[in-house]
């Protein structure tokens, strides 16, 4: 990862990933990351350290909790897609008043369509 320090977009959708390497934190110019259709159970918090990150796609994972306060402090973040994740009710209640970006969520209990 450190070889690609100028990387702007990273598409890793559908790769059965469950975590990101710590080296992701070195991608200081990254603007967009697509981690949809993987196996993340925990939100990859390394993403909250990336100052240029505008778009995070984590659709269709197994994420229950999200670091709302850290996301709210991200200067460039515009959109985070968390559709079809089993998010806890607390995230759904706490997030809206704290965030200044679009958080895309599915209705509570919604399931992703079959592949």
TrEMBL record:
InterPro entries the UniProt entry points to: Leu-rich_rpt, Leu-rich_rpt_typical-subtyp, LRR_dom_sf, LRR_domain-containing
Keyword annotations of the record: Leucine-rich repeat, Repeat
GO CC terms in record: cytoplasm
Gene3D superfamilies xrefs: Ribonuclease Inhibitor
Keyword Repeat (UniProt): yes
Domain of life: Eukaryota
Functional note: Core component of the SHOC2-MRAS-PP1c (SMP) holophosphatase complex that regulates activation of the MAPK pathway. Acts as a scaffolding protein in the SMP complex. The SMP complex specifically dephosphorylates the inhibitory phosphorylation at 'Ser-259' of RAF1 kinase, 'Ser-365' of BRAF kinase and 'Ser-214' of ARAF kinase, stimulating their kinase activities. The SMP complex enhances the dephosphorylation activity and substrate specificity of PP1c.
Record's protein name: Leucine-rich repeat protein SHOC-2
Gene: Lrrc20
């Amino acid at each position: 990862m450190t070889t690609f320090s100028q990387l702007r977009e990273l598409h890793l959708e559908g790769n059965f990933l469950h975590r990101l390497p710590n080296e992701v934190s070195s991608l200081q110019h990254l603007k967009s990351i697509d981690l949809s259709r993987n196996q993340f159970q925990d939100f990859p918090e390394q993403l909250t350290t990336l100052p240029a990150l505008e778009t995070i796609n984590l659709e269709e994972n197994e994420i229950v909790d999200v670091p709302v306060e850290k996301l709210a402090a991200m200067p460039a973040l515009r959109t985070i897609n968390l559709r079809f994740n089993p998010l806890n009710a607390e995230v759904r209640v706490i997030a809206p008043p704290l965030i200044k970006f679009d958080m895309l969520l599915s209705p509570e209990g919604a399931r992703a369509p079959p592949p």
